[in-house]
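Notes on consecutive records. When two proteins share a document, each keeps its own sequence and its own token line. Never mix them. Below: protein one.
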Amino acid sequence: MINLQLEISNLISEKKYQKVIFLLNSNCKDMPQSSYHNILGICFAGIHDKAKAIKNFKLSIHYDKKDPKPCFNLASLYSLDNEEKKLADRFFLKANELDSKNIRYKISYANYLSKLSNKRAENYYYQAIELRPDFPEALIGLTELYIGQNKLKETVDICNKYFAKYKKDPVLLNNLSAALIKLGRFKEAIIELQSSLKLNDKFYSPYLNLGICYYELGNIKLSIKYFISTMQINNSDEICLTYYARALLELNKPIESAQYFRRAYKINKDPIIWMLLSEVFLKFRKINFGIKQSKKAINLDPNHPDRFMFISHYLFMLRYSDNLIEYNYLNEAKKLTSNLRSDAVTKLNINKTISKKPIIGFVSGDLNKHPVGMFLLNTLEYLRKNFIINAYYNHTIDDLVSAKLRKEFHSWKNIYNLSDVEACKLIRDDKVNILFDLSGHTSRNRLWIFKYRSAPIQISWIGYLASTGVTEIDYLVADKYTVPGEHFKNFEEKIIQLPSIWNTYHYDEKIEKNIFPPCINNNYLTLGFFNNPNKINKENLELLSDLAISNKKINIIFKYKNFNHPLIKNKIINFFKKKSAPIENIHFEGGAPRDEFLKAYNRIDISIDPINYNGGSSSFESVMMGVPVMSIIGDTFLSRCGYSINMNLGLNKMIAVNKKDFIEKINYFYENMQELASIRKTLITKAKFSPLFDHKKLSQNLINELNNLLKNNY
């Protein structure tokens, strides 16, 4: 009998079910009826004869009601059918009652409950862990349950509690790292992932997660290495394909990037992938087509949980359009952001009191080495004298600028892993009186926190120079030049109109500056377009090619990250050729470290301000280096920044009313280089002591406006 049972066991493990059935039918005289029918049930289940399998498991239970094995087997069979959930649950429960010490029963039941999102799953995982603290399967199941529920801190805590007993299981290490990644603790995740690979280098998830970590930390080249390793093991993981495509885009490989985005989308038609693909078209200089594709992402899944991200992305891309009419943009923004309210926040208390010092909050994903962080840095020391200032940071990058900013804030809280409702509650609990949004529709925005009315007064500033369309944002900070009174109608927000500049920038003393324009020695003008290539739309190409035609002794240097990419260079060159504009005097350079980039201004005579989407930090840096910026007055906040900068500097001759006027003014300075030299001679000093770099004056103007708002609203 023992030999027969051993033979049957071996045959079942080899999935030779028909042979077992034959053996049972010819050699079962001494076998208990319960065992006989249980084994038959296993065999019929193995050959997919469900009806006979169920019949035999039930007979086995009939002959021995205290045997948990047929109950468990029957439960496992029922669990495969969504229509038989109640029966599966009944027999899983029965098996666990009959044998409460069987870890396999507990884990299987927990896994089944977890798949159904049943709250009891957690309890059964814990029961299994208590039975066998050195058995990793239960903890693996529990951590996967927690990650699915976004209980990330709990995942980390439970892993750390039991790790010593599991001797660093590779799957468990990967689950821990997945939680750490979602928490934005990438450096910690890397340590665990590297340990996981040492235990098992055939498991592809650690390679993928390492790639994600390095990507989020900004080490794109190293992330590429791990994404390639992932694809060598599994080339159909859409997360890997998507991240790899994003990394290729960062490395200026838009064609290859598009290929991998499309591969990812074929596997999983997630609108997020389509949204990211639309960014590729900016690199191809197919701006309007990219905008259309971005809008398509909004409508691919109207119920997608990240639909607002698609809306933000589309509205942001609209800013690059060369045929944008501001009022139409506003209507689009209002329409798309008008819905999606949450009942979860209506019960939260909102602060209606002011403490000794009013509390001001700043929400941003750019409190780091980003223009927004650089713009904000120098105003905080003045703001903190009058207010309690809190930072609500939506990013994981912690660089030198972040460190400087953190010292200026009274409170610094990371909201990267908080839901909008959780973040809203946090801000309301902090009793914030005025809340600033520094992102608008740019990436890493948290506009829905404002949609939920997290503070009594909500203001947009710095990060997005247009209306968000979000009705719950009450005000937008501008100045009398960027948003004159007649343009107020183009904004959903009320305009806080500062008397000078809307923003200030950090003045860098240590960079060597050349007060003499190169044209004096060269006998020709050198113009610089030191802005993002995304701003090179058709209007700008028309302007620059017409300028080149008008004067063959004008050189243009295109300098920024990606300008030396063949795709972008050829796009510009081909446009010039089509217009019969000379190409021998246009030059292309890529990006550079900041100090080196700033020194490049010493090689140009005048900076060119992009039409429609004016320079921000680039224009401030240009005049800081003593190089004036020629700008055309537009009809939007974005297209009037250069106008504001020049008006605050008293450089009326650097303001053009249209393209014809722009070309005439540039040619005027070609004919009058000494006049340009005169402007350059005093510009460095003039800029330094102008409102552009007067953080105290800007702060005081803003403080006055905020105090008036507090007075009128409390």
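Protein two starts on the next line and is unrelated to protein one.
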Amino acid sequence: MKRLILILYGFLLAHLTWAGIHTYTTESALSHGNIIKIRVKETGVHMIPYDSIKQWGLNPDHVSIIGYGGGMLSENFTHKHYDDLPPVSIYMHKGADNKFNSGDYILFYAQSAIQWKIDNNGFWRHIQNPYSSYGYYFVTDNLSLQRTITLAKDQFNLNDVEEIDWYNAYYLHEQDFVNLIDITGTNGGGREFYGETMNLKQNKLTITLPTSYARTDMKAHCNIQFAANSGQNTTASVRVNYAGKTETKKIKGLTDEHTRARLDSLILDVNPVSGSEQIFNFTFSGSTSNANAYLNYIELNIPCSLIMTGNEMPISSKTIQSKKPVIRYRLQGTTPQTQIWRINDGVHIEQIPTEYNSNVLTWLGDNTKVEQYVAVNTSSSTWKKPVTIGRVPNQNLHQLENIDYVIICPSEFVSPAKRLAKKHEEIDNMTWAVVTAEQVYNEFSSGTPDASAYRWLMKMLYDRAAGDHTKTPKHLLLMGDGTYDNRQIFRASISGANTLLTYQAKNSTVETSAYATDDYFGFLEDEAGVRQGVFIDRHATMNIGVGRLPVKTLDEAEYMVNKICTYIDDRAKGKWKSQILFLADDGNHGAHVETAEEGAKIIQNKNKDFLLTKIYLDAHTQEVSAAGESYPLAKNQFDNLMNNGVLFMNYSGHGGYNNITNELFMRTNDIRRMTNKNQAFWFLATCSFSHFDGGVSSAGEEAVLNPNGGAIAVL
């Protein structure tokens, strides 16, 4: 395995340690002071009144905001990343007395769970955080973290300026109603959720996007993404009419049982209509009665006149077609109290120097790069307000290093998690840390739930070891069940109170590609990045072992830990500790038997002391009765072996959420009734059997959750 040689400087600078391409503070911004956690639903300027700050018990004169909101963390370690929590620039409105007191407020720019970024064609594209519907920040009275908005000091060549009175606005329509892997909302998969449904009975759909002062003399760019399904050898069609232009997309029918829909998109470049709204009309047609289409989203990049609307107005500079390197913006409908803030990174906010004359505000901008602004009417009395989550105890995960074993869990499971960690300390001499998911989010994803926060915690520990195997983390345990519905969109899915996030592949239309995997958290090399739900380096090696206990309640966590500790403490000798079982399904031209044989040969070559038992259904006579097909002799042999105990059980063949083999060789109810004292490690090369991200417990989950038997672990 290729390992990056890490060099550590032998000094600390401002509490920073350096490893690889990343720096890590040793003292989190949450380690001291009074801290209040807040959340926002929308991107934009938010207000916190002076009186609220006082009610929280914070010193208003020292108030500061830290964090970076709800944008999804990069899955690629080579990308820029905030370590810990940066201070956010704030505007303090002090009133006529120029003192910050009752009736005054602070303003700050907040990032929601939806980000917008420029694509290679110069259009703004949105990114929905798949783990959260909100952005989070922290309010503290640590004066050293206070950062106020400062005046920008840009230098421009005034001989090379072009004046403009328009900008490129962007709008989004996106609803999350259905997951196409399972439209019931209980056992879906993948990151994408889809919105409005069209079919032969309801074949028309109208979507209205509110806009402001759209320019009809310039082209708008519209990106519409949708999914559709139809029967084999048939087609489904989606027709879109916008601003007098009609486009139709035909989608071929489904050709395999694992594909739920085909994803496609329509691009429209058209002069928008005048007025305050843009209307999209959809018409669906299908060749079969069960054909459907599902709208994913509408992204609209639209030129609009620079006319102030409301108390804040976002303004983007990209796609302005000009040969001039400097632009003079002319914003109408302003007041002397209107300010222009540059919000490029959403954290370091600068006020842009402006000139005001007769309700028109002008300022200069750099046309050689992407610039984002927001016009702010600072005298307004109406602002979006964040929701108060509550007080946050001081914490400092950034001080951790030289940890062998990390357990991440909901706060309710801390006690059994520590009990398990202490057992490994006792037996394996491991150093350990038990941390809550909330603590990890707070320091590594600005308080916003994000699965990559788990990975960044482990990345920090891995980098700090600097290649020293004695100091690198060895194991990560996620103590908590998971769900594909990380944002809790469907209330039918399992409750998120005691669950941990799952890493989901981006694909949400093909069942075999819409997988969840905890392996993601074990790839810690700098180059082991992920882009859009796909591993960039397919040859990367996991650097730590990763496991999950799919427990939902404290009782489940307690007896699961009891089960593991009993297994660890079992020092009694027995035949079962040398017994390995290989079970192979029938059919598929002997492929399942071949797979089992390959595994058996590996075991035999590695250790001759193991006792191998092979149960290959193709070697047995199948019986057919009114109850269906069965292999009674093979079934009895299997049951006897499992009841007496085996060290390792390997299965290759067909399976589902509730069983293995088409003959229902082992079902969920069978597993629940198991009372085998000597539990095996189950390794199954099959489908769905061990899903841990559905709304119902899979057979594999039931096997490890059985307090009286079943399996000690399932893979």
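For the record: Confidence is low (pLDDT under 50) at residues 1-15.
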